[in-house]
Amino acid sequence: MSTPSPAGPATAGYAASSPTSKPAGRRGLTIRLKLTLWYGGLFVLAGVVLIAINFFMVRDSLTPAPEKARAAVAERFGIPPEALEFGRLPGIPGEQGRIERYVTINGIPLPRLLSEAQRELKEEALRQLWTWSLVALAIVAVVTFGGAWLLAGRMLRPLHAITSTARRLSTTTLHERINLHGPRDELKELADTFDEMLSRLDAAFTAQKEFVANASHELRTPLTIIRTEIDVALSDPDLSPQELAEMGAAVTEAVERSERLIDALLVLASAESPPVQSEVDLAELAQKEVELRSEEADEQGLRLELDLSPALVSGDRSLLERLVGNLVENAIRHNLPGGWFSVRTLTAQGGAVLEIANSGPLISPEETERLFDRFYRPDRSRSRKTGGFGLGLSIVKSVATAHKGTVQLIPLAEGGLRVLVRLPVAPTRPGSSAASAARNPAASPPGHSVSTTG
How confident is the model at residue 2 (pLDDT cuts 50, 70, 90)? Predict the structure, then answer.
């Protein structure tokens, strides 16, 4: 029979106090108490310094009166104070007629006794000065600590409002605000900053809820189509091959729609993280995207104005391709038959600029501000027909923001929209494609600076 190892309890005890289990720390001193101690401590320190300076100044200048010294000596030896005064012999002028009534007392010279009495009187006066100064300092210090406690509490009252508001916050109470009133000081700025943060959080949570609701709705629609088609096919055993083909086409279209939505959502998620840095020319991407969608533009009879100059940026090529592709696609799909659209790239003021404009219906300024909202579609019937989800410009803005750029929407007076995307230009290295194109314009990709009619 084996005996238990004595290391068992020790090991168990060591495991119980392992660093992974952190005990709850004790609450430290409150800010109010710290401020009170600091204010009071500084006052006491300043008071002690002031008393010390005053003590040394009085010590160096204080000299007790001779009358008080003679009175102290007379009181000590029990003789009248007048007996210690100096007198003069009658009829003898000058210092020869000056005598002392008591030259010595008990064998001690009178001047020595008077000097010692003056010293003792001075020490007693300084002792009383020091004692009463400290007593006064103690009384004033108590008043100071009390006043500092009240003053700190009054000054920190806005922090209690901020704390109580923060404790009440949840996803359903983000509409609450501190609304602190008072002078424009640091605490007022803190409260206003906290309110601004709450506004941003409220907007972010609202956008997230709308995004989840819209995404769920958009995904539910093709899934409902797929389920309906499959249920109909399963309930009819005599389904003809043509009906099966139609059912398969409907299911395929619904699946493709779901894939496009999921792909768009993945692009949005990718744009939230830092992009992979590589050298990309916006002119090259624009040329490629225009060529890919040239047939769709020809079907609508759109006139294309193309003016591409090298615009080199640093970023994620796939995300930038999606940015340019979405803008070109919107310019074609949200256009009028026989209309026009233009694509232009250039480098200006240290930034790479992509400008895409198109004809189309009139867009109000209020509607322009909402075009960046996710799943927002000005014309839902047209968007459904063309397969849009209202995520195109949201993706454009997210990609531009991830690349430290900006996107500006400008509604045209005659109808349509102009989109300006500005991105930081990439540092031009010797031998790069942009530098070569700048030195040799003939080496630019074909199709630059052209105007075609579909």
Answer: very low
Question: CA-CA distance, 101 to 271, in Å (whole number)?
Answer: 110
Domain 276-453 has CATH 3.30.565.10: yes
Confidence of residue 16 (pLDDT cuts 50, 70, 90): very low
pTM > 0.70: yes or no: no
Distances (CA, A) of 96 to 87, 90, 92, 99, 174: 11, 11, 7, 8, 103
- How many residues are listed for the chain in this entry? 454
Percent of the chain with pLDDT over 70: 75
Distance separating alpha carbons of residues 297 and 302, to the nearest angstrom: 5
Q: How far apart are CA 73 and CA 327, in angstroms?
A: 110
Q: What is the mean pLDDT of the chain?
A: 77
Tokens for 361? Answer: 């219906």
The two structure tokens encoding residue 33: 């108490």
What residue spans define the domains of the chain?
A: 31-155, 276-453
**What span, in angstroms and rounded, lies between the C-alpha atoms of 134 and 54?**
12
Close Cβ partners of 85 (under 8 Å, ≥ 6 residues apart): 70, 101
User: 46 in helix, strand or coil?
Assistant: helix
Cα 308 to Cα 291, 304, 344, 406, distances in angstroms: 13, 12, 5, 20
